[in-house]
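Appendix B. Raw example, untouched.
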Amino acid sequence: QSYCHRLQHDMYFLTSTSRLNEQVVDKIVLQLNRVYPQILTNEEAEKFRNPKASLHTRLSDLLKHLQKKGDRHCQEFYRALQINAEQLFNDLPSRKILKTTDPTEIDTDKEQYMLNDRGPVFFLACFSVAAGLALFWYCCNSETQVIGRARRILGFSPIIIGRHVRNICMLYLEDMSRN
């Protein structure tokens, strides 16, 4: 989101009563006048610091003026606001939106839910299928002669593998040993 759009979004918040006092607005205008590159000319700075106009009018005119000038000018306004009124800068509506929708930040609660939405039973089922397929592939490989060892392992595994599955595997191993 560009700084001009952010400033447009924050304009009502900034111009509402008692958000910014006259001294802070003067400091921001002076900083925009003195910073390199110069954002406000001397004439513009005097116009926005004119005590005869109301603070609301001066601030509204300043924000509209900066929006017309472009994104760099709006960015410098936000920098000046951060330096001179940090608490107000942190409370800006656009800052709150940026804090909640930062694409580089990982929402740990959401990430934890996304990783654990299937639960431990799903993990154990997938792991069992993968281990079974690996054992099946290892036993069926014609280059390896491990049927005797596999039979011993499967014989001691009624706790790990269900009895029906163990019986099927034992029948398959016996059939393989006959061939």
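End of appendix B.
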